[in-house]
């Protein structure tokens, strides 16, 4: 007999961001954000290794970025798909292992909120993420014990949340500038249909670059270089500049920073910031222009503009968008939460939840995919497109090729992604060999690319003379993960101790107090030292109610000091 009381699997959507991550659930006909252990919906995508070798994720780790930079990592999504290793104290992690720890923390929050285990979610990725970056995101989810029911492009997820909210029929451009990536998507709503026409972007442009540019300018004005400053000093200056950047919309800002017994001061207003950011702001233009060209639209053809991502809050960015489009962007919905809400909405669509059955979404492949060929005699390395950028997905396209000489025994298929005529300027995704039965003639072959809804590619090669077929799932790029690396990651994570969720509020406050102490001077520092001492004493008393009320007061006081 079947148990009719089993809960339906939760319909979860995750925004795994460079700076912050969120998890949402589809419940009672709408997407809702799930709070973390601190009651907040934004969980900083930061991981730190505590002194007792336990892992901290989120706000506590974010505070330790300043006090313990050698044991803390942030913005690792930027390295997803690379073989970069990140050191936290004596331990080493890959970007996907760190992402897995963030996903694991979100999973725990969802389980605490829903009261039952969860095993599946829709996860969003930047539209411009490559095949390898998508694969690594899937692997991060696997490490966290989550099955990915679908990878959804971030701007497309935002478009779903926005479209449902507005119930409009219009052409929209989604401008998504997060901490580390920039995506532009042009789409059309004709509800229940949401049709993506074009997606472009830059995987290495985001709010973090704007902070880094301020850091360079500030050090230059003080005639200092990073090599003259210890990691903790660099981290505290980076943190102060990040805060300064976020407050710039309120008016001119200044900061004081102590280094080697000297007090340094720096002031900045919006006009000076725009000068420092000139080249970054210029880089925002090209993807916008390309997306409009690909969608065959002029700025005036758009009915609305939606800004998504924390960095789209910058006045300089909003000004640029307003100038480019000759109108003000739509900003009624919170740019931080749209992607997670849209991902949960997609989870509901996929599960055919009654409240949303009708919504149909079509997405595109944002870049051109093809193979390396010879052009003319002996000119090697020309890029031959098979799936052109902005083709609606899922798609399957075939092109015919031939071998280069009679009695050829081996054929190398090298798959590339990019928009340049020579493969050397594009990204190598994978390469594999097909063994041929040599004949006296040049042989013909069909190469078919099938690109699925998650943005993953499969290649089929058919030799026309023999009808022989070779299928190849692109499951590993030349820099990709092999089975052993995967097993190692599983083993490494399974031996880690993770800070218990219910202890996080106290641990986070201690980390915040330590950071505040470090960032302040004089009498303010004395106050914070006293708070730290008092809170440690209250913790020792082990009275939950007293601890909670003390914690709430101190958190409020720190919020007021903006520390
Ligand atoms: P996301 O990945 O969407 O969470 O975006 C994070 C980025 O948004 C970070 O680089 C933040 O510095 C930036 N950000 C968040 N709030 C603001 C703000 N008020 N002004 C400027 N940048 C912001």
UniProtKB/TrEMBL annotation:
Region (Disordered) residue spans: 468-496
PROSITE patterns documented for this protein: HSP70_1, HSP70_2
InterPro entries the record matches: ATPase_NBD, Heat_shock_70_CS, HSP70_peptide-bd_sf, Hsp_70_fam
Pfam families: HSP70
Keyword vocabulary terms for this entry: ATP-binding, Nucleotide-binding
Top-level lineage group: Bacteria
Record-stated family: Belongs to the heat shock protein 70 family.
Protein name stated in the entry: Molecular chaperone HscC
Taxonomic source organism: Pseudomonas fitomaticsae
